């Protein structure tokens, strides 16, 4: 087998919304769309692992990314196939060597603050500090370009709301954008795609619409991505992990505003901004 190995996978993606009729405050009917949330139970060699609530747009990537980020499968070639069957709401994963000591791993879990209550299995927390993140320089102008480009996405959110979006980015270019009912599902779907398509994370930026919790830092670090950007806030544990692991952490990023909570030394302020209210514009120094 080579580095481009791909397991046998179904192609069971589903539309993310469904049409409904709602009545407004005047009693008038309105034809709208709502997020189509579905349960998907993951079985590995017939062993039930977890049930995820998902839109089901890229279920195979979601399953593979979930297994990777939980530390349950570390070698892609261990996965023989992933088959999703929505008639029974199940994803069947077949491996080469079975589940082994998974019962012990699955017995240790931390319920996280992810939407729908994400879960971290096994000894992920202990393994985190073996990860080395190499910081990358980040220009203010790149942040602004990326935020502008992201305005073209969030298709499901604009149509139906009730979802989170995540993106894998290179500079200001969006390489992959996924929406799901929980941000942890969106992250896992991108992680699965990265694993399948052999995409490295060391020069990438990860964007999320959700808050920056410990779970988000863990997942981004596992993908070896050095920059995490969000339009939402952060938690104290998320900040502590980012500091420990060396993840550049930016939040409240919208329009021209952002806050750098960790890694400010890696951010180059190269964009000209208007003076704050009541202040004079800064003097520019020119070479004589």
From TrEMBL:
Start and end residues of each stretch annotated as Disordered: 1-20
Cytoplasm in keyword set: yes
Any one Pfam family match given in the protein's UniProt record, by short name: FdhD-NarQ
GO cellular component: cytoplasm
GO molecular function, one term: sulfur carrier activity
Keywords: Cytoplasm, Molybdenum cofactor biosynthesis
Compartments reported by the entry: Cytoplasm
Signal peptide extent: none
Taxonomic superkingdom: Bacteria
Active-site residues, record numbering mapped to chain: 115 (cysteine persulfide intermediate)
GO BP terms: Mo-molybdopterin cofactor biosynthetic process
Function: Required for formate dehydrogenase (FDH) activity. Acts as a sulfur carrier protein that transfers sulfur from IscS to the molybdenum cofactor prior to its insertion into FDH.
Family listed: Belongs to the FdhD family.
Protein name, as recorded: Sulfur carrier protein FdhD
Gene coding for it: fdhD
């Amino acid at each position: 087998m080579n580095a481009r190995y791909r397991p046998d996978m179904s192609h069971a993606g589903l539309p993310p919304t469904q049409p409904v009729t709602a009545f407004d405050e005047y009693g008038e009917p309105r034809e709208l769309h709502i997020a189509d949330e579905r349960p998907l139970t993951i079985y590995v060699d017939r062993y039930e692992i977890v049930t995820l609530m998902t839109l089901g747009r890229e279920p195979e990537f979601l399953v593979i990314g979930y297994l990777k980020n939980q530390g349950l499968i570390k070698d892609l070639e261990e996965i023989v196939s992933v088959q999703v069957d929505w008639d029974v709401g199940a994803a069947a994963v077949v491996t080469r060597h079975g589940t082994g000591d998974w019962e012990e791993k699955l017995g240790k879990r931390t319920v996280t603050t992810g939407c729908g209550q994400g879960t971290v299995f096994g000894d992920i927390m202990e393994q985190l500090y073996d990860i080395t993140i190499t910081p990358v320089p980040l220009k203010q102008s790149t942040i602004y370009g990326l935020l502008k480009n992201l305005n073209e996405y969030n298709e499901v959110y604009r149509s139906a709301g009730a979802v989170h979006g995540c993106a894998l980015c290179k500079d200001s270019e969006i390489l992959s954008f996924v929406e799901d009912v929980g941000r942890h599902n969106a992250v896992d779907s991108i992680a699965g795609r990265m694993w399948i398509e052999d995409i490295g994370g060391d020069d990438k930026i990860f964007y999320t619409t959700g808050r920056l919790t410990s779970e988000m830092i863990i997942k981004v670090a596992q993908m070896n991505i050095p920059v995490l950007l969000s339009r939402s806030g952060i938690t104290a544990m998320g900040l502590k992990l980012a500091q420990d692991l060396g993840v550049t952490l930016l939040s409240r990023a919208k329009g021209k505003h952002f806050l750098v909570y960790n890694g400010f030394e890696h951010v180059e302020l190269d964009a000209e901004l208007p003076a704050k209210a009541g202040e004079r514009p800064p003097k520019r120094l020119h070479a004589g």
